[in-house]
Amino acid sequence: MNPPLASIKFCMRNVVTLFVVLSLVAGCDKKTSEPSEVQQRPAPKAVEKIEEPQNPERPVLMPVAAWVNDDPIYELEVDKHVSELTTLYQNIRLPVSQQLKLAKRRQVLDRLIDQRIAKEVGTSAPNEDDVRTYYQQLTDANPVDRRARVSSIIMRADIPGDAQSIDTAQRRLRMLVSKAKTPSQFAALARIHSKGPTANLGGEIGWIRESDTIAASKAAIFGAKPNSATEVLKSPVGVQVFWVHEFEEDLSEAYVAIRPELEAMLRQRQMAEVKSRSVKDWRAKAKIKYAERYATPRNPQKDGGAPSRSTSPREAAQ
Q1: Are residues 276 and 128 in the same domain?
Q2: Quick one: pLDDT at residue 38?
């Protein structure tokens, strides 16, 4: 073989080999520089521990010392007053024994019960029955204004103002209404015989208030039974009869208008009564229940009795 030709072939093989090596190296670098799909996906975050927030409004069970009408007095209130008393004793250099603290706890509790009773009686709103009774006492009127739903038949006398003619019309209407046993029968008679403005409506008048009705009609209408006819009433021009469908109770407009003032006046009377009566009387009516640790008082007494007299610091020390 020609030596120069062999050298050229050798060089060519080396160039090809070098090119292949460089291509392989370039491909590896490209794969390394371009992250795969797995590498591109963000790594999942670590699960953080979420602490349950504390609820400041969550009710805290507190020991109860006593109940007044099912309203609790907590030991915390008693502790506060006993602590103030203890500080007072220490300031005047008097010994404070455990026995003295226990005795004072009961006295403090009884005083808190008295205050709670006086507060409840003095601030409670008067009930509806009391306000209505007070209204009747002041006005001599009924606060409840009844209403009635009525229909009517009106017949005119042949000679208006003539007593004999009116009596004749009354007998005729009384005989006519005696045939009506139901509201529909009364309405049918009203459409035929009534001379009133609601005759074409079967005599239907609607709801009327007792306070707005004249005396003669009031006694007949509100003295009748529901779903019945009244007696036949005379008038200067003729006669009239009512059919009472139903009754309904409603508060009078006069009572509703002044009710706030009446309640305020009753509250003032109630406060004056609280001041005039001793707490002992109110305790007798109140529902008082002591916690077990206070069940046997220092001075035994029935529930509702007056509390034992509070002693002064010097008396207690002696």
Answers
A1: yes
A2: 45
Nearest to 158 by CA among 142, 150, 170, 145: 170
Please give the residue range of the domain that contains residue 156.
144-251
* φ/ψ (deg, to 5) at 149: -100, 120
Pairing verdict, β 64-68 and 228-229: unpaired
Question: Integer distance in angstroms from the first to the last C-alpha of the chain?
Answer: 141
Nearest in space to 120 (alpha carbons), one of 81, 73, 63: 73
Q: Pick the residue with more confidence: 253 or 239?
A: 239
CA distance 202 to 179: 15
In a domain, 160, yes or no: yes
In a domain, 9, yes or no: no
- One domain, residues 287 and 220: no
Tokens of 77: 């209130």
- Once rounded to an integer, what is the mean pLDDT over residues 276-295? 72
Residue with tokens 């529902």: 287
Cβ contact 107:300 at 8 Å: no
When pLDDT is averaged across residues 214-225 and rounded to a whole number, the result is 91
**pLDDT tens for each residue of 169-183:** 999 999 999 989 999
pTM, 2 dp? 0.43
Over residues 60-68, mean pLDDT:
80
Main-chain dihedrals φ then ψ at residue 131, nearest 5 degrees: -65, -40
